[in-house]
Amino acid sequence: MVRLRATAISASVVLALVVAAGCSAPGGDDKKAGDDSGPIKIALVDAQSGQLSSLGAWELKGAKLAVTEWNAAGGINGRQIQLDVFDDQGDPTTGTNLARKIDSEGYIAMLGTAESAVTIAMAPTLKTAEIPNITSGQSPGLVAVGSEFLFLNGPTSTTYDETLAKYIVDQQGIKDIALITNNGSYGKGEHDAFTKALKTRNVTPLVDQVVTADQKDFSAALTTIRQKNPKLIFLGAEEVESGLIVKQARDLGITVPFAGAAPQGTPVFLDTAGAKNAEGTIVSSPYLSNDINEASKKFATAYKAAYNEEAELHGAKAYDGAQILLTALKSSNVASGKPLADAIRGTKYQGLLGSFAFDNTGVGIFATSIGKIENGKLTAASS
Amino acid sequence: MQVFFQTIIGGISLGAIYALVALGFSLVYRTMGLVNFAHGNVVTVGAYLASTFYLTSKLPFALAMFVAIAVTGVIGLVIERVLRPLENRDFDLMLIGTIGFGIVLDALVIMIWGATGRAVPSPVPSAPIDLWGIRIRTYDLVVLAIAAAATVLLVLFLSRTKRGAAMQAVAMDHEAATAVGIHVGRSNAIAFMIGAGLAALAGGLVGPLLYVSPALGGALGIKGFAAAILGGFGSIPGAIVGGIAIGVLDSFTAGHFQGYSELVTFLVFTVIIMIRPTGVFGERTVNRA
Amino acid sequence: MRYRIGIIALAALAAWFLPYGLDSYAIHVVNVILIFAILAIGLGLCMGVGGQVNLAQVAFFGVGAYTTAILTTKTGWGFWLSAVLALAATIAVGLLVGTPALRVQSHYLGIVTLGLALAFTNWVTNAQVAGGAEGISAIPVPTIPGVDLSNEYLYYYLELAVFAVGLVFGLFIVRTALGRRMRAMRDDALAAGALGADVPVLRMTAFLLASVYGGLGGVLYAGLIRYVAPETFSIANMFLLLGMVIIGGRQSLIGCVVGAAGLYLVRELLADHPTVAQIGYGTVVVLVVVFAPTGLAGLPKRIRDLVTRRRGGQGEAARLQPFQPYETVRPDESGSQSPILEVDGISMYFRGLRALDDVSLSITPGEIRGIVGPNGSGKTTLFNVISGLYRPTRGRIRFRGQDSTGLAPYRLARAGMSRTFQNLRLFGDLTVEENVLVAIDRNATWHSWRYVARPISVLRRDRDLHRRAAEVIERYGLAEFAALPPKSLPYGIQRRVEIARAVAAGPALLLLDEPAAGLNGDEVRQLSEIVRSVRDSGVTVIIIEHNMGLVMSLCERITVLASGHVIAEGEPAEVASTPAVIEAYLGDSMSSDDLPSVPEVTG
Asked: Which residues span the membrane (chain B) (predicted)?
């Protein structure tokens, strides 16, 4: 009796499915185009859990700050902006799920992710769905994707390291350089970009040490470097690992300065390395500190008021990215798809990181500044 | 030659931490028959507690450590209660059950302390010692001394005290121990409490060396577990030897194989385990038919 | 049966029409779920069925995906050719990762496989050919003429087909000889070996199966996502996979699939609350492990059991039927028979402890030999040496004229030796019938290639095995217990099952280790009848026993061991009056029960 009923129920379910589906082929996916009323839906995709969740947390804070400001000022064309957070867990597969999800739920643009691999995995879907994406990655691999819907909210490694090499080799005349980089996507990008910048200047590194992204002890690599007596050590790793390397290097009696890109200018790096150890570090960054100019001071104050913590680079980048997107939305009268992408490409924006003007590759900013850590603070270097 | 010795020093320094983690694994395993994959996450909890007492409550480092160990020990009692049904179960179940519990602990850590982590300044400010060009951090010496003291205390506790002897008895045969009137549940709870305390000790000590973040314990947990296996799972001296060995192995592969170090470390580990499955100090288990 | 066919038809129909109700996001999630389901089947076969802890499943997945990616993008070979090569590569890696299983098990195997999985991600993160941390993008779309596989709705049908074939093949394995043998090994590797299951080959088979499914999942992943990066094959995803298998029920492939689908869906639903989802998922895992170790798949049975218990009686209790004796086969009495087993000067030391010291024995075909001695005199150690569990420190053993010293237990079993164990080693999660089936199956595991090439012959053979098992069960009067797990049976019946199993293996020499322990008087009488009948059917029997009545009445010759030495050998009456024997027994005050006494049991 029970069995009979179960069979009957499942049969009717299937029947209902068939009827509902009609005889059309699967995939008759009616696209919910961004309708003209209600809030403007923007998706922020970043790791909110797992190993990379700290980056995701910073990005969310920065982007949210921009959106809150716009909403407080009345939104765009009288419509509020709705920023929804999606957790990619730092996992490319989850990223591809989310790409479809934000497409089917009618989001017209996406901010994030901080993880190049996730962004690259999502790119083809977003391209097909014509959803512009402003990412926080800086890997040259993002440019290689060649999607007209993918934009970077900061410079690529090439810019960072070209500026750095110019300062170190051309201006300071330092040629005895050692390299220590990690094998993650960030470290690898830095390694390649800096080596290339050195090569154009006919400089060969004295030593080239590669570490893994979750290594804890660097004695071997650093002692090898110490034996070559470099004048400067180039560092290509994320904040925490960079901090550990510098701290251990000082413990090993290495006194020469370190040089690197954005992570070496952040408070996390300073804290991890210890202010004394980080002294003299040369940093190539588009955002040297919170009090470099009026805009950054204003941003930092608002950030502190909102989250009760100091602003830093990742938040600033995400803030700029969100600002650019919102400006483009306004200038295009809340367009979506290709017109929105074109609007972003056409946006000239003076942001925390500098002045943005996008080229065909989706990169909008091609300059960084050189800063130096002095008295425990990152300040612009006097060249 | 300088690189060689410096690499050993670096390896021993982290090896001491791995050893403390391995000690917790081994102690809990030998008394309770529980392979606790959440041990690494307990290390994270301990590290956060120690750093909170040290940085936020501004306690002196030693006192902060002490409080953190005590608090983590108490948390350990709670964890033991949750995991008790898993003891002496089939390994697959213990594995996934404790991993599941670790996932919960991880999420709780993120809820309480956030995802971004914190740096802990070294409590021993004096400059490293220079021995013929080999530099030894004073803090490393402190860590080594504490690890050694903890091991000695643990061994004394197990061999000289009544409670310790009872725990040894439970380890050998828990049915017989029950028969002679030993409260197995209590003995297990104490073992777990000590294990959690050791985790907090490792986590607290590693804070100033590394960076306290939710991901801290995961890496230490895997290496510590490998260390315990390498030394002979369940053996106290084995945990120490295994910890130092994994630390030094790690340092050397990092020096020679750079980016590929992890690959080489685990390949070497696999080969060693295949040659000598019971580890350095492991008892050869006799199949009783 | 018709009911089951109906369910399958419904499931197939539902699966066929599923895409009609889904939007592009949902179909993508379904496609990813199918890949995880395939991976979970592989992990279920390896861990749940084969009992081999495998934390490298995610690496097998990675090898499949990466090889496809590398071959299609770097060499320009077609997707399908690359896919076949990727599968081959995964199998090779699977066998390599499985090798440690020959030496270590349980948590040792866990950390080794976990380490190798980490080694894999480390390699792809570094290797130029694997694109480093950036991964490999722009993998070409697989092509089938006339079908656009870049359309995820159509890709779904490709995945569905692979999944269905994979699931059916997995179930086919689990329910026939190979799966039975793997489950036996999982429950008790020692006993499985003693019954002729070639444990090393079986362990490798478990990893082989895991890698095949891992490779399939990887190939499908490469075709679906068309991008690979190291993060996808992380430890976190391995634990997720493990969670799926455990929550679903690792011993049931359907359970693994349900677990994969369920857990992935729930995580996807809770995607906006990652921390809550994490706590929830962790808690569910702990709860399942504690309260429902058999997972979701085990729930229906638990509920059914609960209901029957609530309703009171479990119907009529099954009853043990009398044993039906074998037909007597008289061995030809053509004078000099060479001994079936010769033990020559065997010594066995454990860390200085001499368990056996220069023991020699010779057993003639067709005899029933008793081995007695006080506790700790080395009787069981002697059995373990004879049956290959221990390699003796010194001395040689010849079985049926061949030197068998140090041969693996399963080789000895194949050569015609069978044994029972002092503390019963029945396969707890197999039924009584399956316990016997494992013993009857004498094929080497490598014959399992037939599963791929000649599945019909596998089915036919299995039917034949079942028929023979039914005969054995009938003869031992166990028919009413055939479908029950031995754990649920009274001790005396378990003893009988173990003897039935040992004899079902068709041995020339049967070793019985304390077969009467824990039996009541009536059961001992039945045992004695069984052993005699087994001997009369042409099997030589060696029996270790403390029940002197049984030994005295049953055995033609008795060997007495004390402290690892043979102190007497001869006919029962003769041995009982040897002064050394009396002294050995009296000197061992702890076991005065073992005093030889006047035979009590007759017939």
From this structure: 6-27, 34-55, 61-79, 91-116, 136-158, 190-212, 224-248, 260-279
Cα B13 from Cα A247, distance rounded (Å): 14
Which residue segment(s) compose the domain that A44 sits in?
40-155+294-357
Residue A294 CA neighbour count, 13 Å, CB half: 1
User: What does the alpha-carbon distance between residue C562 and residue B109 come to, in Å, rounded to a whole number?
Assistant: 61
In a domain, B143, yes or no: yes
What pLDDT, in 10s, does the model give residues C150-192?
Answer: 888 899 999 999 999 999 999 999 999 999 999 999 999 889 9
In a domain? residue A368? no
Q: What is the pLDDT of residue A33?
A: 47
pLDDT digits (tens, 9 = 90+) for C461-507: 999 999 999 999 999 999 888 888 888 888 889 999 999 999 999 99
Q: What is the pTM of this model?
A: 0.88
- Cα C243 to the chain's mean position, in Å? 22
Question: Is residue A88 assigned to a domain?
Answer: yes
Q: Do A120 and C227 touch (CB under 8 A)?
A: yes
In a domain, A21, yes or no: no
* Contact criterion met (CB < 8 Å) for C132 and A93: no
Portion 235-264 of A in contact with C at CB < 8 A = none
- Please judge whether B289 and C108 are an interchain contact, meaning their C-beta atoms are less than 8 angstroms apart: no
Question: Does the residue B254 lie in any domain?
Answer: no
In B, minimum Cα distance to A228 occurs at B3
CATH number at residue A247: 3.40.50.2300
Contact A326, A76 (CB under 8 A): yes
Contacts of C217 in chain A (CB under 8 A): none
- The nearest alpha carbon in chain C to A121 belongs to C227
Domain presence at residue B243? no
Contacts of A218 in chain B (CB under 8 A): 10, 254
Protein fold of C341-575+585-594: Rossmann fold (3.40.50)
Residue B245 included in any domain: no
Q: Where in chain C is the domain with CATH 3.40.50.300?
A: 341-575+585-594
Separation of alpha carbons C437 and C177, rounded Å: 8
Other CB atoms within 10 A of residue C518 CB: 12
Indicate the number of domains in chain A.
2
Strands A369-374 and A377-380, sheet pairing: antiparallel
Q: Shortest Cα distance from A308 to chain B (angstroms)?
A: 13
